[in-house]
Amino acid sequence: MSVLVVGSVALDSVETPFGKVQDALGGTASFFSFAARHYSDVKIVAVVGEDFPREYRGLFDGGNIDLSGLQTLPGRTFRWSGLYDYNLNTAHTLDTQLNVFSEFHPVLPESHRDTELLFLGNIHPELQREVLLQTKSPVLTVLDSMNFWIEREKEALTRVMEMVDIVLFNEAEARQYAETPNLLEAARRILALGPRSVIIKQGEYGAMMYSGNREIFMSPAYPLEGVKDPTGAGDSFAGGFLGQLAGSGDFSPAGIRKAMIHGSVIASFTVEDFSVNRLLSVTREEIERRYQEFRHLTFFEHTCKHAVDCQRVEW
Fold first, then answer.
1. Could you list the residue range(s) of the whole structural domain that residue 66 is in?
2. Is residue 154 in a domain?
3. How far apart are CA 173 and CA 41, in angstroms?
4. Which of 75, 220, 263, 283 could form a disulfide with 100 if both were Cys (CB 3.0 to 4.6 A apart)?
């Protein structure tokens, strides 16, 4: 199976306590695709300007990433500038220049319309809906969004959330959208719209999945000593998650849970360096080794001395 991502390709200028970069490759589609390509073929629908560096395009060409849906428009590429202090969970935006991204209108090539797995990055909800209407019955659709669209386009966002299988929010976004401080209640309200599951990203604490059958699954974050730049961790999580599903073809509850762990594994590599650098250098052997370490971190003996011990926990 292949994965289609619709989102941004950007040039990021980022400073953290551990260094800084200028006009480095960034954006949702970039982080997602370089994460997912370790598991499956990836197709991108995005836009860049005429100033997009040739060497960055070459990085995409060097992997199993289809760029036929990458538009090049007259003008400058989308740019974002951000600063992190020692609280790496929070990015302080210094500057955002939409440039050609403000004119982005995703048009799927005919070869992309029957892609089995679809990831809708945090673009305008109406554009996300247009993409969905161009596809031909994908097996799984995942939507990401952000506080900007929740605040300004909540009605449009709600309409598109009703059309997808999985909604991906961070904690603040889930609370903001559902207008409640309680994550369980927020998940219930989102699931009531129709998605099968809600995945809530929790930064350095991992991610939680709430499903329509009232089950919870928690994926921890990998304990790292050397974090350089958390930019793109959430998009990398999505790339590892959907890439693993595409590569395995296993959409059972167990397969979904395994994919979440792979999402956390890939995200843990992303934050070890700036931009997509670590995603470019990481090997499949390193990914598998860290996946096994995740299994060890979360393993405990299961015993059923009493009947209540073996009952499924619901929320």
1. 2-310
2. yes
3. 30
4. 75
